[in-house]
Design a protein that fits this description.
mainly beta, Immunoglobulin-like, eight-stranded mixed beta sheet, 2 helices, 9% helix
């Protein structure tokens, strides 16, 4: 502010306040009044401050004085400050004068109490201006957005926020909860992570916020550790002519590099035609898949997948097998009859099944005693279909426990043995004679001792034999009668 402007302000104020005291009648209410009211104004740093003062019936001889924190800075629309951000407009309509104070690009030092005052009177209007600042945030630990630590280490994540009002600071983890018992949100500038685990890696966000905005910084934490591997399927049941896949899922930081090999460390390489190897990123790890388009007998056997990074190596072994799947027994564990039990099961085999080996033991307090065994021919089935079977075990005793061992066989060998336990009723409940013939027969049966402790097939073979003999006998009688008639 220059000296001439200061002189003008001084002379104006002297003239305004130099009236004799006796000329002011404090008991007489002025005829003018403010139409606008006191108010608080909140603005964001950099925004525009607008203050309006409207006065009704103010004589033209009386000016309106502007004060900021009790300091005069304008008279009517005349500004004494050299701050180019400040402007005042005047609008006179009839008996009303309206002044609008505008401050652009608001700053913190623009805060305070702004007053519209009529000199020589007690009439004034006050506006309180508050300048707010949206949050800003800065990472201080670590100083960069990328952080690598070893498994078992401790780490501190710290960010500092500024703003007005003072922002609230919180930490979250994208797509997951925070480690430990913290939950989803931690409020505070510093987040402490102790004894890091492999799955503690991820994106950690520091968010600062107040009612005027928010700001965030993200730390990408990598927990470094040696590879580990899991097999999607350890034994893949398949057969010649089929397509087969072996998949290994690796985790580790840095991301492991994967290699495939056969037994005797024979390397497996993709040829683009029959053998293909693919690796994709899935859920924080990598899945490597070995695919053979059309199997031959030479492709059957064990395969190894090996993942390596600078922290170590992990190896898993899977097997392509043409053996039948394990038998799955689906019948109930409680027999309906006391003297026989119908065993029901199902299995899958890519190569055709040949037969099943069945062994039944009776169990008591002294141990297991063989009840009998049998070879059961397999029925023909479509490739990859689930084939149901059933077999009736006879010669059982009431209130007894029996242990079944059952396995299937195809041209490549036998499946794993399925173990199953069933019980007969306590009270004797003998099965009625069979009314239908089971067309599945056995080609071998082994009995350790005489009935009732034995295995039989309820297939009606004896009934078929008797029926056949009876038919031949009748046929012979008819032929004899015909010959006798011709002879006569």
């Amino acid at each position: 502010m220059n000296y001439s402007r200061t002189l003008i302000i001084g002379i104006t104020l002297v003239l305004l306040f130099s009236r004799p005291a006796e000329s002011i009648d404090h008991n007489t209410e002025p005829t003018f009044q403010f139409l606008s009211s006191d108010e608080d104004t909140n603005v964001l740093f950099g925004d525009i401050i607008t203050i309006t003062c409207s006065i009704h019936k103010l004589p033209h001889s009386k000016p309106m004085m502007w004060l900021n924190n009790s300091q005069v800075f304008a008279m009517n629309a005349n500004i004494f400050s050299e701050d180019e951000r400040i402007s005042i407009t005047e609008d006179i309509q009839d008996d009303t004068r309206t002044y609008i104070l505008t401050i652009i690009n608001s700053k913190l030092n623009d805060e305070g109490v702004y007053e519209c005052q009529i000199p020589g009177t007690s009439q004034s209007q006050k506006h309180t201006v508050i300048v707010n600042i949206a949050p800003s945030v800065e990472l201080t630990e670590p100083s960069t957005s990328f952080l690598a630590r070893e498994v078992g280490e401790n780490v501190s994540l710290t960010c500092v926020a500024e703003g007005k009002p003072q922002p609230t600071v919180q930490w979250t983890r994208q797509d997951s909860s925070l480690p430990g018992d913290v939950g989803n949100i931690y409020v505070g500038e510093t987040l402490e992570l102790t004894s890091l685990r492999p799955d503690d890696g991820g994106l950690y966000e520091c968010l600062a916020y107040n009612e005027w905005g928010s700001a965030a910084e993200v730390v990408e934490l990598h927990v470094m550790y040696a590879p580990s591997v899991t097999l999607v399927e350890e034994i893949i049941h398949t057969g010649p002519g089929e397509q087969a896949e072996i998949a290994c899922k690796f985790t580790g930081k840095p991301t492991p590099e994967v290699q495939w090999s056969r037994h005797a460390d024979e390397g497996v390489k993709a040829d683009g035609a029959n053998i293909r190897i693919s690796t994709v990123t899935v859920g924080g790890g990598v899945v490597s898949t070995l695919r053979i388009q059309r199997l031959t007998d030479a492709d059957l056997g064990s395969y190894r997948c090996m993942g390596t990074n600078d922290r170590g190596t992990a190896i898993a072994e899977a097997k392509l097998s043409a053996l039948p799947h394990s038998v799955s027994v689906v019948s109930a564990a409680e027999a309906h009859y006391s003297d026989q039990y119908t065993l029901q099961w199902q299995t899958v085999s890519i190569p055709s099944l040949i037969e099943f080996t069945l062994q039944v033991n009776e169990r008591n307090e002294s141990g297991d005693f063989e009840h009998g065994s049998n070879i059961i021919p397999a029925e023909k089935h479509e490739k990859n279909s689930v084939l149901p079977h059933h077999y009736t075990i006879e010669g059982l005793r009431p209130n007894a426990t029996y242990v079944v061992k059952l396995r299937g066989r195809n041209a490549y060998g036998e499946s794993d043995t399925a173990n199953f336990i069933f019980r007969t009723p306590e009270e004797e409940n003998v099965a009625p004679p069979p009314t239908t013939q089971d067309k599945r027969t056995t080609n071998k049966i082994t009995e350790k001792y005489q009935p009732p402790r034995h295995l039989q097939v309820s297939d009606g073979n004896s009934a078929q034999l008797i029926s056949s003999c009876h038919s031949v006998f009748i046929f012979v009688l008819i032929i004899g009668y015909v010959l006798d008639t011709i002879h006569c």
